[in-house]
């Protein structure tokens, strides 16, 4: 839980609880959730997303070869996945709101948020 006024950005550990919340399995998976518009780094290479907010296409600048992506709702549900050669990701079918995009490039995974208008 994040107290009022605290930052929501940073490193998180994923914990899976059973339906009774009695026992848990620590997946030991860690990921970083970045502020919208923040530049990602892949092996020292800067990668940016624009426009943010976006309407029809989300453009990825800084990756000049094919990469895989996944778009999640804020609840963690996978909404769209694919790959891109051009850096353009069609988001036309998403409803307005905030999303998490995950980019998988050269064995590294980065996540950040974007807004669909």
Describe the fold and architecture:
This protein is mainly beta and 117 residues long. It has a single domain (35-116), classed as Immunoglobulin-like (Sandwich). Helices cover 0% and strands 58% of the residues. The strands form two sheets. Strands 1-2-10-9-6-7 form a six-stranded mixed sheet, with no helix packed on it. It has a four-stranded antiparallel sheet with strand order 3-4-5-8, with no helix packed on it. The model has no long low-confidence stretch (mean pLDDT 78).
CATH topology: Immunoglobulin-like
Alpha carbon gap, first and last residue:
28 Å
Overall structural class, as computed from helix and strand content, comes to: mainly beta
| Radius of gyration using CA atoms only | 15 Å
Number of helices: 0
User: How is the largest sheet built, in terms of strand order?
Assistant: 1-2-10-9-6-7
Using the 3D structure, state the CATH architecture: Sandwich
Summarize the helix and strand pattern as letters: EEEEEEEEEE
* Beta strands, count: 10
Write a concise keyword list for the protein shown above.
Immunoglobulin-like, four-stranded antiparallel beta sheet, mainly beta, six-stranded mixed beta sheet, about 120 residues
């Amino acid at each position: 839980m994040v107290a009022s006024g605290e930052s929501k950005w940073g490193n998180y550990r994923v914990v899976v609880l059973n339906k009774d919340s009695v026992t848990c399995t620590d997946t030991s998976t860690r990921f970083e959730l970045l502020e919208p518009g923040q530049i990602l780094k892949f092996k020292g290479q800067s990668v940016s997303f624009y426009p943010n907010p976006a309407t029809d296409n989300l453009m990825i600048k800084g990756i000049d070869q094919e990469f895989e992506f996944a778009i999640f709702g804020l609840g963690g549900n996978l909404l769209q996945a694919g790959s891109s050669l051009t850096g353009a990701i069609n988001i036309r079918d998403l409803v307005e709101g905030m999303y998490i995009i995950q980019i998988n490039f050269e064995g590294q995974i980065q996540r950040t948020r974007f807004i669909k208008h």
